Fold:
Amino acid sequence: MSSNPSTGVTTAFLFPGQGGFDGEALRRAKERHPQIGRVFERLDAVTEELYASRISEVLFGERKADLRDLLDNDPWASQVAIYGAGLAAYEILAAQGATPDVLAGHSLGEITALVAAGAFSVEDGVRIVAQRVAVIERQSGVDGRMVALAAGAERTRKLLELVDEPLLAVATENHDEQTVVSGPATILDRVVAIAGQLDVGAIEIDTPFPFHTPALAPAAPEFAAYVRKLDQHPLNRPVYSPILQRYYEPGDVLAELLAEHFTRPVRFAAAVRHLRESGAEVFVEAGGRAALSKLVAKVTDGAELRSLPTLALTGGRLALDGTLEALREAGLAAPERGGLAELLAPSVPSDVFAAYWSEHGHMVLELVRTELDAFRKSTETEPAAGPEPAAEPEAASEPAPQAPAPRASSEPRPEGYDRERLFEELRTLYAEALEYPEDVFEDEVQLEAELGVDSVKQVELLSRVSSRYGLPPRESGFRLATYNTMGKITDFVLEQMNDQGAHAPASATG
Structure:
């Protein structure tokens, strides 16, 4: 697998770092998605070994712990919770057939991204996170915090020059109007005071330590030595690093590069712009809260793309539900209600199909996209099938080379079409193709929601209809979800025929 996809990037999954945990959203999702329980069971085995405490009991016990509770008690629990929530969100998305073209993480989230891509086991990922906390705690004099300033990176650096403290650093460049500063707590008090005089807003970040600061340089070698002992595996998916500003490569020693994270800044805005330039149109935040989703929207202001959260509550609703709906609508996740499983493998257990789809679904979807794109191009370059000139009647009996569709009628069709006649013909075509009784195709019946016709089959049928009636290629903004009933499809076809003065072919060969 290419580690540096210069083209073909459509979907990027982003894993949050500090602050990326929403306990209530995680608990709600756990009630419906077994992947969360399975991920945290694996985390429990390590936290019990390291801390004599099961992280699941901390997060899902009778006392509902949230991020502030975790930060006020054991720092390790907040870091493992962020890591676990990101990994659980990724497993849920994968089980629903959502497969990213690239992964990226924000600070701590970069460890989650590498584990999701197979570089380390889930259990070793916990050990890496725990060791990150341990080596920082052992550093004497590391009493710091992180503050987000409402200013760009350049202005923030000028502000830090006024303080002239070598342990102060720009930790994260989130977007043009937000930069995070890391350093000693007392010095940061001065930074916040100066920012206030300059009318620059300042908000403290929910984190147990300062990260991405020169103060942590002494901790890096010990951390690298520990990670070097763990098994490192080849990546099964590209991972882009906002810290390194490049993709991870097969020859990389991850222990050394992860140790560099202690002192190097996170250039998140630059990473988002790079992925956007590579073609990314959908950014999915795999983890708690919705901070990265909002940052992406800020960085790409005005761009036509989707920025989707998962384990966050928006308007009292779990954001994951809406994100899965959006991904299904865009053809980036498997249809709901087991549509694809029933179509492709009706005798295979649902959990087996979900596991297969998680591993190979992206290849299936890519094959479908390639075939549909080739079909679309062929319809653009080849003349639509239609009546041959009267001087050559014998040619009219030869059907055009296209996918066969069911014969609705053996009688020649008139040039003038009314809606009722067209509706009856389309209903017959759909009924024969799907082996359904014609009478189920009422005007307002929902094709997918009520009849279970998944989006892949709908595309195939609409392509048959387009070929049959000589319709022009669909415009780039065409949305299949808009035409979700037989009545809407009939109106669409009739409008297309009227716009170009089209009429049905003289032969009903489909």
The two ends are 41 Å apart (CA to CA). The first strand starts at residue 11 and ends at 15.
